[in-house]
Amino acid sequence: MKATAITRRGGYDAAEHARRYERVARLMPRAEWDVHFELVAAVEALKRERNAVVLGHNYQRPEIFHGVADFVGDSLELARRAAESTADVIVMCGVRFMAETAKLLSPDKIVLLPDLEAGCSLADSITPEDVRALRRQHPGVPVVCYVNTSAAVKSECDACCTSSNAQLVVESFGAPEVIFVPDEYLAKFVAANTKVRIIPWRGHCEVHERFTGEEVREYRRSAQAYVLAHPECPEDVQEAADYVGSTSGMIAALARERPERAVLITECSMADNVAGAFPETDFLRPCNLCPHMQRITLAGVRTSLERLAPAIEIPGDIAVGARRAVQRMLDVGRPRGA
After folding, report:
1. In the chain, where are the structural domains located?
2. How many whole angstroms separate alpha carbon 43 and alpha carbon 210?
3. Residue 291 — φ and ψ, nearest 5°?
């Protein structure tokens, strides 16, 4: 579709379409952006009709992240922003555990996940029974779960955490040891920064565990790049990086350091979406895409708003326990994201 062929659709017109293109100009040619016009216009019209907001996780496709998302960022902050809004409907452009978290914080709102098969290898690495077994093995030891877990797993834990506030939550119990699930690498990252003994679970993210320390060293050596790694990455990757932290922490580090070249060792869509905020930085993109995030499409967002489905529901007993774990984290301190 040529730009000249674009007409007004339900309040979304060529001028607005052109303004939004500025956000993705470094990521795709104008002709590709124009192909998305009809779907973006349809989603915008449905959002008004349904009084809906669209949440775009950092790992989402640019046409969703920059095209239709009302709030963008990390999963927990998205859920918080949606809960504070006056919307009746929330569309989570992320994965299932994120939609569940949004439902926990907005129990009276309709929460949609455009594709129920959008799962998470890390969340799937542990079950509620696994948590109960850990409690039997370590009686009386508090259990902290990373936000990348199902509502059912959260309901078995004492507190939830994000990658940026994990140490704070762990230390909030004042206990000599804490069980930390499910990410093994994040658990070791926390253990290296606290006196609390961490009992880990051996869960991993299929995207982050594919990176290697040798890759990171090569980026630094050959491209003279500033390397930022997520703590879900293996230990050798963390040791080789210039900065290790949450996605929001990476953004803050980029704003502080303003490097000429940067490599984000995380899901590669994030580098695409962050690049617009740092035009002076050349982002090298080691591309490990999350296959689950890629299941969310503009067409799927439109269909979910048309049908108000698939909707996320959490059984009452699970919701009570999971909400308690999330609330303890919120009481400890405002998190900055996963």
Report:
1. 3-119+293-307, 123-205+314-332, 208-284
2. 35
3. -65, -25
In the Cβ-directed half-sphere of 39, how many Cα atoms lie within 13 Å?
Answer: 19
The pLDDT tens digits for 156-205 are 999 999 998 999 999 999 999 999 999 999 999 999 999 999 999 999 99
pTM here? 0.92
Q: Provide mean pLDDT across the span 1-6.
A: 50
Whether residue 6 is predicted with pLDDT greater than 90 in this model: the reply is no
**b/e burial code for range 138-147 (CB count within 10 A of at least 16 → b):** eeebbbbbbb
Residue carrying structure tokens 């907001």: 53
pLDDT for res 8: 73
- Rounded to an integer, what is the distance from CA 91 to the centroid of its chain? 14
Q: For domain 123-205+314-332, is the CATH number 3.40.50.10800? A: yes
Q: What is the pLDDT of residues 38-69, one digit of tens each?
A: 999 999 999 999 999 999 999 999 999 999 99
Q: Which fold has domain 3-119+293-307?
A: Rossmann fold (3.40.50)
What is residue 312's predicted lDDT score, i.e. its pLDDT? 98
- 208-284, CATH topology level: Rossmann fold (3.40.50)
pLDDT in tens, 266-309: 888 888 888 878 989 999 888 788 999 999 999 999 999 999 99
